[in-house]
Amino acid sequence: MQKLDPRGRKVKILATVGPASRSPEMLARLFKAGVDAFRVNMSHGEHGDHEQTIKAIRQMEKDFHRPIAILADLQGPKLRVGKFKDGQAVIRHSGHFTLDRNPEPGDETRVQLPHPELFGLLEKGQRLLINDGKIRLKVIRADENEILCSAEVGGVISDRKGVNVPDAEVPIPALTDKDRKDLAFAMHQNVDWIGLSFVQRPEDLAEARKLMGGKGALCAKIEKPMAVRRLDEIIEMSDGIMVARGDLGVELEPQEVPPLQKQIVNKARTAGKPVIVATQMLESMIESPAPTRAEVSDVANAVYDGADAVMLSAETAAGDWPEEAVTIMHRIAKQVEQDEAYLGRVRFLDTPPDRTTADALAHACMTVADTVAIEAITVFTGSGSTARRVARERPSVPMLVLTPSMTTARRLGLLWGAHAVATKDIGSFEEMIAKGKRMALRHGLGSAGSKLIALAGVPFGTPGSTNLMHVVTVAGDELEKHGE
Predict the structure, then answer these.
(1) At the top level of CATH, which class does the domain 12-76+174-339 belong to?
(2) Which one of the listed residues 83, 209, 221, 437 is annotated catalytic?
(3) Active site residue 221
(4) pTM for this predicted structure
(5) Catalytic residue check, 279
(6) How is the chain split into domains, by residue range?
(7) 29 is catalytic
(8) Given the residues 3, 7, 29, 80, the one annotated as active site
(9) Domain 357-481 - what CATH class?
(10) Is 451 a known active-site residue?
C-alpha cells in the first residue's frame, strides 16, 4: 500500500490565477485546499496585475513556509480572422467562403486573414477550423492573395475568431513580439516555469531557451499535430511537457486525443520529465459546485496514468467555485492513490534506468522501499536531477527533497511525489543523516522507529555525483536533539 506525503497524494495540482482567484485571500484558500503550483496566463491581464499575483504568491511562501512553483504561460502565435462589417456574419453550410488579404471588414462571403504566411502555403483539401472548430472549412483553391474554401460546417463567425490549421506546419515562430515582452517580464519576476504555446518543432524551444538566459525551466505545450510528429525531439529539448488538450482536441478528431494523451504522458515519464495534463478537466465547475461523473473519471485516469500534475484552467481563473474545484481535484487524486491497484497501474510503464550510478541508485530506492518498511526517501540535491530520477520510478513512499536552492525547491512543485524543502547545505555524511531525520520528522514523513532512505552524492555540492544510498532508523529523540 502506498504511503502518502503531507498533502495526502503524490500527483500535483496546478491552478490558473485569474479574476476569480488573484486576491491574496483566495490564493491562500486555494493553497490550503491543495494547490501546489500556480499558472499565470499571459494571454489575459496586464503586467501590473501579474506582478501583484506573483508578489502575493511569494508572500504566501513565507507565510506557509513552503516553496510554491509559478508557471507563466505565454500566449503564442494564435491565428485569427479579421473583423466584420456588423461584428459578425453567417457562413452558409456547403457554401463558399474566402479568406483574403483585403483589410476591409468582412461579410457572409469573405473576411481578411491577416497572416500572409498562410497564403500560398495551403493546398486543396486541407482544413481550416475557426472558433475552436465550430466552423470547418476545406480549401478549394489557394494562391498568394486568396484562399477559397467550401464550408463543411457553417455558422456564425465574429470578429477576431481563432483559426487552426491542422494539416500544415505553419512557418511562424512560436514567440510573437508580445510573447517576447511577456517572457522578459516573467524572467524579471523570477518565475519558475515558462509554458511555451503552439510548439511545432524543437527549434521553437531553442529560441525560447536562448531568451530565458539560463533562468527558469521550459515546459513545451503539446497542442499541435505537428508537435506530436516530432514529440521525442521536443521532449528532449524541454524541461517538462503539458498535454494541452484544448487546441489539440480542435485539430484532431476527438477520439484521437485520449490515446495520444497516454502516449505523451508515457514518453515524458520515460524521459524523466514532469508532465502536466491540462484543459477542461473540471470544466462544468466553472458554473457548478459539483463536477460531472465523466470529469471525475477524466481526472482519475490522468492520475492512474502517472501524470506528474493535473491542471485547472478557467475553473480557478474565472469560475464561480475556484476553491471547490481545487478541493474536488485533491479528493479525486487522493482517492485514486489510495487504491491498491494504483501503484501497479503507474508502474505498468517500463522505465528502465540508464546505465549510470545515479539511475541505478534511484531504481534501487524503489526496490528497497517495496521490500523494507520505509517511510520516506530523503534526496539531497542541488539541481533537482536526482529527485527527477527517483520520481521516474514512481516509488511507493513520499520523497523528501532537501536542497540549498530555493529555485530548485520551487521548480519541483510540478514533480510527482516530491515534497521539496529549501534548507542550508550539508558538509558531511553525519550532517546529512541528522538533517534527513530531523526534516522527515518535522514534515510528517517519519516518526520514532521509522526507516528512511538517504540518497546523495559525495563529495557534497558536486553536481551529478549521486553515488550514495543509506538506510537509517529515526530515534525517538531526533527532533529534540537537532534544532535547526
Answers:
(1) alpha beta
(2) 221
(3) yes
(4) 0.93
(5) yes
(6) 12-76+174-339, 79-164, 357-481
(7) no
(8) 80
(9) alpha beta
(10) no
